[in-house]
Amino acid sequence: MKKNKIPKLDLTISERKELRRNKILISEIHNITLNELCSILKVPENRAKEIKALSEFQNVPSIGPKFAKDLLMLGYYSLDELRDKNGARLFEDLEELYGEKIDPCVEDQFRLIVHYAIKNSSEKQWWDFTEERKHYRAKHGYPKDRAE
Questions:
Q1: Does any domain span residue 1?
Q2: Of 126, 127, 128, 124, which Cα lies nearest the Cα of 2?
Q3: Which residues contact 130 (CB under 8 A, 6 or more apart)?
Q4: Which residues of 27-41 are buried (b: 16+ CB within 10 A; e: fewer)?
Q5: Distance CA 71, CA 135 (A)
Q6: Can you list the residues of the chain whose pLDDT is less than 70?
Q7: Does residue 119 sit in the same domain as residue 143?
Q8: Given this model, what pLDDT does residue 120 score?
Q9: If you count DSSP H runs as helices and E runs as strands, how many of each does the chain have, helices first?
Q10: Could you tell me which of 43, 78, 46, 56 has the C-alpha nearest to residue 7?
Q11: Which domain holds residue 77?
């Protein structure tokens, strides 16, 4: 059985206190239902949804807090929502959102997260998708209206 990673979460003092009081490890947050998390943390649903998503995304091998927040910025709150997405398109959406070019390795992370959403027992890392991305971009390039 795979050991859960400990996600980096910006939790308030009160949220941390409630987790301790309920004997819940930060590494287990992604396994708790949204309703339970709202109740345990005494927070609104949107806050619990954000915390749960950040935890779930960071439980994927080689995915960190910055990328997890990028997924939230794009409107995704669970791996299930990413199952039928395209890593290249998600990368292009993120560049469009920020209005600037982003390190191409981030596209590898998008490819990993989509792969993991389909095969959640995978131990692949983001760099395992570098060749796939390079091959794809050599064939298809980037959007003509890509930010400078």
A1: no
A2: 124
A3: 105, 108
A4: eebbebeeeebbebb
A5: 24
A6: 1-3
A7: yes
A8: 81
A9: 7, 0
A10: 56
A11: 61-148
